[in-house]
Specification:
Distance between the termini: 20 Å
Protein name: DNA-binding MarR family transcriptional regulator
Pfam families: MarR_2 (PF12802)
InterPro entries: HTH_MarR-typ, MarR/SlyA-like, WH-like_DNA-bd_sf, WH_DNA-bd_sf
Structural class: mainly alpha
Organism: Streptomyces demainii
GO molecular function: DNA binding
Number of domains: 2
Number of strands: 3
Largest sheet: 3 strands, antiparallel
CATH architecture of the largest domain: Orthogonal Bundle
CATH superfamily of the largest domain: Winged helix-like DNA-binding domain superfamily/Winged helix DNA-binding domain
């Protein structure tokens, strides 16, 4: 695979960077409306999918396990997360979203308007092509 550094590639990279920045800005604003930091909202979103070992959360977020511990502590204090023993290995602690945590995470996701309107202006075929291209860029060939 060859590296392509041409004006079009650079423009695409800049556009992706702009999209990421706008998404993060809106995500932080949406999290703040729920009195959460962006990091707390991200952890809560991951925990809403499935109970997860603390170490795996740290890997997914690319941070130190002690940071995740502090975030889960704060979510737990608000009743949004809880710690459980892993039924498969009782030495492992899982963090999990509570019902209130799952509801908060769903509300947060639902309040993210970024790109919703512009994407709605695209046809189903255009959104499918965009999705497939983004998957290819990420190396997801499924």
């Amino acid at each position: 695979m060859t590296s392509r550094i041409d004006p079009l590639t650079l423009e695409v990279v800049e556009l992706i960077g702009t999209i990421v920045a706008r998404y993060h800005e809106e995500y932080e604003e949406a999290a703040a409306k729920h009195a959460l930091t962006g990091a707390q909202a991200r952890v809560l979103g991951l925990l809403s999918r499935a109970p997860t070992p603390m170490r795996r959360l740290a890997q997914q977020l690319k941070c130190e396990p002690s940071n995740v511990t502090g975030i889960v502590d704060r979510l737990e204090a608000r009743g949004l997360a809880e710690r459980r023993l892993d039924p498969a290995d009782r030495r492992v602690k899982l963090a999990a979203a509570t019902e209130a945590g799952r509801e908060t995470s769903a509300q947060l996701r639902g309040s993210l308007d970024f790109a919703r309107e512009p994407l709605a202006e695209l046809s189903d075929e255009e959104r499918t092509v965009l999705r497939d291209l983004l998957k290819r860029v990420l190396g997801d060939v499924s």
